[in-house]
Automatic annotation (TrEMBL):
Reactions mediated catalytically: 5,6-dihydrothymine + NAD(+) = thymine + NADH + H(+); 5,6-dihydrouracil + NAD(+) = uracil + NADH + H(+)
Listed cofactors: FMN
Species the sequence originates in: Amycolatopsis rubida
Annotated protein name in UniProt: dihydrouracil dehydrogenase (NAD(+))
Enzymatic class: oxidoreductase
């Protein structure tokens, strides 16, 4: 398969995270069958690297409680993180080694930059092109609302300017990852695409805050939130971008199972980045996901399956009312309860 000019082994990709921060982690994901692997993000800021020193992670059960024991696959994750604590020259060597390991397996390794200063991102991107076949520019980092060393762009002009600057310096496919919390993510996707993005990633995790029942906040601060409950929200923006743009899309935030990956594909994504499921179950989870997606696509044309759910979606104004109003059972239940 191909996404935005990048050949990949399959549509189950590993997103940038602490799991892809070392050569051992990158190799483990490649060997487990990932279609592509996005290395941990870097940028020019020493402050962004120091942010990793105060990283913390809270797995939250479907009931809303922070787990004291091992996390489960359907848990949400509230976390505080930072960027890879490496100098660029050494990181490029790590990336090159990972690329060499992945190439014979058909698994490309992408470099990743979380935006700080656009000119510096361009400089880093130019250097990365000597080591990797594609670069992901993350302009949707949720920590950008809390950490001064990274930025989250939510307006069209800022997205356009940043992508143009990096695009001019990067001679390999450039993928741009967008935030989920913006007034019009499709407009951001259109700006990224028109400014040179070869593919668009939708969407980054959401800012989050979770007090315990006694009032104390999990992590002792705000953080970034991702969970299976985010899936419909992520699919909303993927499907809307698919409907509005002729652009390759990469889905992220909410996929924990093969069925979730298939939902992303049916909503218009050509590939799906997975992170939290691997934190919980390890890279071996990739074998399960790749096999499950393969079974789900068996006998189907991949190109026709991508976006297939969007074709069946109707605007509210085009919907035909059902014979009996759908809300009647709910009002009847409320009346029978005596309230």
């Amino acid at each position: 398969m191909e996404v935005g000019g990048l050949a990949a082994a399959n549509p189950v990709w590993v997103g940038s995270s602490e799991l892809t921060m070392t050569l051992d982690g990158l190799i483990a994901c490649i060997d487990a069958g990932a279609g592509a692997v996005v290395a941990k993000s870097v940028n020019e800021s020493a402050a962004a690297r120091r942010q990793l020193d105060i990283a913390d992670y809270a797995f939250v059960s479907p009931d809303g409680d922070v787990r004291a024991g091992p996390p489960e696959r359907r848990d949400g994750l509230l976390n505080r993180s930072g960027l890879a604590q490496v100098e660029l020259a050494g990181w490029l060597e790590t990336l090159a080694a990972a690329v060499a390991h992945g190439a014979p397996r058909g698994c490309p390794v992408l470099g990743s930059i979380t935006l700080g200063d656009p000119a510096e991102a361009a400089r880093i991107g130019r250097a990365m092109t000597a080591a990797v076949p594609a670069v992901e520019l993350n302009i949707g980092a949720p920590h950008g609302r809390e950490a001064r060393a990274v930025r989250q762009l939510t307006d069209v002009e800022s997205v356009r300017d940043a992508v143009r600057t990096v695009r001019a310096a990067v001679g390999v496919p450039l993928f741009v990852k967008l935030p989920g919390q913006a007034s019009d993510v499709v407009a951001l996707a259109r700006a990224a695409r028109s400014s040179g993005a070869d593919a668009v990633g939708l969407v980054g995790r959401y800012p989050g805050f979770l007090p315990a029942a006694d009032g104390g906040p999990a992590l002792g601060s705000w953080g970034a939130w991702g969970s299976p409950g985010c899936l419909p929200m992520s699919l909303y923006w993927v499907s809307k971008a698919y409907q509005a743009l002729a652009a390759p899309l990469i889905g992220t935030n909410g996929a924990r199972t093969a069925a979730d990956v298939l939902r992303f594909l049916a909503s218009g994504a050509q590939a799906v980045e997975v992170v939290t499921a691997l934190w919980i179950g390890g890279p071996a989870v990739l074998r399960e996901l790749v096999a499950g997606v393969g079974e789900g696509l068996a006998g189907k044309d991949f190109g026709e399956f991508v976006g297939s759910a969007v074709a069946g979606a109707r605007e509210y104004a085009d919907l035909v009312p059902p014979p009996s109003p759908a809300w009647l059972p709910y009002t009847a239940r409320w009346r029978s309860s005596g309230r």
